[in-house]
């Protein structure tokens, strides 16, 4: 089995080492794990691609490359350059340092990498680790301990289609040590109604005014049964996703109202 891994926290991020171990467990001793990850942190870039500029690709070791681009760029580099002799069976993205539950999914470079793989017709799973005070000493314990079995189960028993906007998956591990995780639940993407992105002004030493983008409170539950809510209740969430942004529930009503 051949697996391509990437992330949005950068080639040196500890979560990428966790993901490599998960991928190696699934690929087995006869398999291959290839890494193409951003040379620098790319958190929050979503599904951005470097359409207007080239990217430098550097080899860091056997089957290990860094690209000066987004996670989606890294997937493209992996598919069309690094692994030009044969596509991977699976793309894994993560393990993100922080959750990509609820509206965070829309900003996530981690999910952007998985989405690009899905658009290219390759099965993909994004993995993210919710942080919290109870998991501070070993923040990736839940992902490292429970990730291999869950990814294997999803690979072997998950729903994998071949449609134009094929399904990919987002896994979010709760902010707890592995021993305290209650299990996993299939959950829809939620929405935190009281947590929003914003900006915070700051003055440089020279007096120039800059704006920092500021994230909202993360330990806020969403709708019952959705990803952020089950994560905060101690469960791993598994969310099937597609890149299709159409509001299908509005199509018929819109057509009738505009007729």
From TrEMBL:
One of its GO terms (molecular function) is exopolyphosphatase activity. It is an enzyme of class 3 (hydrolase). Nucleotidase that shows phosphatase activity on nucleoside 5'-monophosphates. Binds 1 divalent metal cation per subunit. Belongs to the SurE nucleotidase family. Its EC number is 3.1.3.5. It catalyses: a ribonucleoside 5'-phosphate + H2O = a ribonucleoside + phosphate. It holds the Pfam family SurE. Keywords: Cytoplasm, Hydrolase, Metal-binding, Nucleotide-binding. A divalent metal cation binds at residues 8-9, 43, 96. This is 5'-nucleotidase SurE. Its cofactor is a divalent metal cation. InterPro entries: SurE, SurE-like_Pase/nucleotidase, SurE-like_sf. The gene is surE. It is found in: Cytoplasm.
């Amino acid at each position: 089995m051949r697996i391509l891994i990437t992330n949005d926290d950068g080639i040196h991020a500890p979560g990428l080492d966790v993901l490599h171990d998960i991928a190696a467990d699934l690929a087995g001793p006869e398999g291959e794990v290839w890494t193409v990850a951003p040379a620098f942190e790319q958190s929050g870039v979503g599904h951005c691609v470097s359409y207007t500029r080239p990217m430098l690709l550097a080899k860091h070791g056997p089957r290990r490359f860094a690209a000066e681009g987004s996670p989606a760029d890294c997937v493209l580099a992996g598919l069309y350059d690094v692994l030009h002799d044969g596509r991977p069976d699976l793309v894994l993205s993560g393990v993100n340092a922080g959750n990509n539950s609820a509206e965070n999914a829309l900003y996530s470079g981690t999910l952007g990498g998985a989405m690009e793989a899905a658009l290219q017709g390759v099965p993909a799973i994004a993995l993210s680790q919710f942080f919290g005070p109870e998991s501070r000493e070993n923040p990736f314990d839940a992902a490292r301990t429970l990730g291999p079995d869950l990814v294997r189960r999803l690979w072997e028993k998950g729903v994998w289609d071949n449609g134009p906007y094929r399904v990919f998956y987002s896994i979010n591990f709760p902010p707890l040590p592995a021993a305290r995780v209650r299990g996993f639940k299939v959950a829809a993407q939620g929405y935190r109604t009281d947590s929003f992105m914003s900006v915070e002004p700051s003055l440089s030493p020279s007096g120039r005014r800059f704006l920092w983008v500021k994230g909202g409170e993360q330990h806020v539950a969403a709708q019952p049964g959705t990803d952020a809510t089950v994560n905060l209740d101690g469960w791993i969430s598994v969310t099937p996703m597609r890149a299709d942004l159409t509001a299908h529930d509005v199509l018929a009503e819109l057509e009738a109202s505009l007729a």
